[in-house]
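Hey L., structure's done. Input below.
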Amino acid sequence: MKSGTFSLSRRALLSAVAAAAAVVSFGFGTPAQADPLKVSAIYTVPVEQQWVSRIHKALNAAKERGDISYEFSENVANTDYERVMREYAENGSDLIVGEVFGVERAARKVAAQYPDTAFLMGSSFAPDGDNFSVFDNFIHEPSYLVGMAAGAATKSNKIGMVGGFAIPEVNRLMHAFMEGAKSVNPDVEFMVTFINSWYDPPKAKEASFAMIDKGADIMYAERFGVSDAAKERGILAVGNVIDTAADYPGTILGSALWHMEATIDHAIEAVKAGEFKAEDYGKFSYMEYGGGSVVLDASLLPEGTVAKVEAKQAEILDGSFTVNVNDEEPKSSM
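Output:
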């Protein structure tokens, strides 16, 4: 029996058992329970890396609830990605999660060959076929909000920004941050650079030092290594995706946070119900779904800043203010 056929049968069985559990009880009134979904994940970087860590955290939460079994591979080279996808599909994974920014074509080819396996992949492009769904970290809204805080806090009116790659999921966060800063401080200028790596803290740190030497008194830390430079030079930094304030006390003025739980839970529910299809999960990273949030350190900000940010957040949540999504590569303004 082909793995794809087995996967379909197992998911169909899970769906049937879950449905029966709603109406059938045994002995002491305990409903029947479906076996956990078999979920596998493929990461091109260590699970400690901030972006991937959020996916890993959400999958572990589902595992702890008993909804899934979970295995993963980290530090998978792009040249090995297709092979690992096939191995997980052949081994009967119900859902395969990953990030395919450097292997879009190969990943979509594999998914097409396993139509009965669900794929949920971080991607810059659209869903594909019947089983290749995509997600992204649409945390442009909290990025705008923390940008407001940075714009209010800068004294030199110069902010440095270090990113991994100039791709849409990075670009949109930087643009939103810049717009937020400009909304409260029209005089602020930006220095922007990309290190062309998802995980190279020393390179990010060196790029940050260069910007600090040019007068930046706040650093936007899209990558690890930036906050280290800010701490060493005694200036402030803005966190991205995860909250690292505890690691850099007195340095992180605020962070735009990403929460993957809504995305992962939607996929799990769809697979269990036998209703998984190719769709864009990007909306589940929006603040209204609990996919994004902002955290601020009031002690590092001018008086009244937190209140202004909270007021703008309320406008975002009630729909009266919309943060632009700009996927173009951001440029330095100085």
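The longest strand covers residues 252-258. The chain has ten helices and 13 strands.

-- N.
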